[in-house]
Design a protein that fits this description.
Length: 187
Amino acid sequence: MSWFKSVEHSAFSSVIGFFAAVDTHDESFPAPLNAESIPINMRLFGEFEASSPEVGTENHLQMVVEGLRKRLDYVMDDEQRAKYTNPIDIPTISLFAADTLDMSLMELIAVPEREEWRYEANEGAPIFSAGSFVAGALKALGMFDGITVNTAEFTVKDIYELDIFNSDFPEKPALCIEADYSLDYCQ
């Protein structure tokens, strides 16, 4: 119960979900994205977001830039950190990653999200994607005891693929069959 109290009123972020969904630099991008389209799409996204009014409470561009900067900080060594110019937009982040770290934008995006990272958009409080919230709850309930798990990297698909659901129905309820006959579990 203490975990739930500690994350009460935490924000949800589709940006965190995007970063969690990208596991490698050359595949696993959420459709319709692919490795070739990411640099173009990120540039267009940055230009569009910068000229658009905020929708709701999440500033997507600010979250993406902050997420990329966290990834830069995570992978830099001391020598690289000395050259760090605190880039403020996607093009300068991409240039810094390429010039200083010898990393592509796709490789930077694929750096795993970390549970301990806090974003300014939520004033230092935790921010979750749907998958990371459920994984955090499962971790707090002891489902992963004895296993090192980074809950920030969980997507909804990852949750469904965990082998924790009772799929041993003597007879699956009709409502479950109607909802999705192909699933081994009931939702």
